[in-house]
Specification:
The chain is mainly alpha-helical and 177 residues long. It is built from ten helices and two strands; from the N terminus they run ααααβααβαααα.
Length: 177
């Protein structure tokens, strides 16, 4: 958002962030460096709960503005490490919020790192989950061949990687010399 505002100017800043810039800047420092930010009035002091609602409203309005331009896919990786504030915000995006908006939120997380607050988000009726299993040896072979830019991956390498990584694609990429 900051990059788009910087390159496209004041009109984009006003459309995507506007007064929300003051609310979001403590969480993304580059917002405070945007042209137009300094002219925004300071935020009134509010209590913790009102501050949290104000932050969630600012995030939602920015997502809404982005989705008005074109369909939006928001990818959030490693949700098992998300802070409480991020998960609380995601819980505010109920099914009603998505109606009429071209927004998809895709979150990835590891099952090995369970968290009750993430589980609560996943149990929401409007959340769909898809469990991805480990890669089979043939998929590891294709991945290795692609990464090495060869037609066929060496079977010994594939066998060793599949055994040591248990088909986890992240580890396959990390272990491959």
């Amino acid at each position: 958002v900051s990059d788009r505002c910087r390159t496209q100017g004041a009109e984009t800043f006003e459309r995507l962030l506007g007064p929300s810039a003051r609310i979001l800047a403590p969480f993304e420092a580059s917002i405070a460096t945007l042209p137009g930010y300094a002219e925004l009035p300071p935020l009134p002091d509010v209590g913790p709960e009102a501050s949290r609602r104000r932050l969630h409203d600012a995030l939602r309005s920015t997502l809404e503005a982005l989705a008005e331009e074109r369909p939006l896919l928001l990818v959030l990786d490693d949700l098992q490490w998300a802070d409480e504030q991020s998960l609380a915000f995601l819980r505010t995006l109920g099914a009603d919020w998505f109606v009429g908006r071209s927004v998809v939120v895709l979150g990835t997380f590891r099952l090995e790192d369970p968290r009750s607050d993430l589980d609560a988000l996943l149990r929401a009726t409007d959340v769909r989950t898809l469990r991805l299993g480990r890669l089979e040896a043939t998929a590891v072979s294709e991945m290795v061949a692609d990464m090495l830019a060869v037609e066929h991956a060496p079977e010994a390498v594939v066998s060793n990687l599949h055994r040591h990584t248990e088909g986890n694609p992240f580890f396959v990429a990390e272990y491959l010399p």
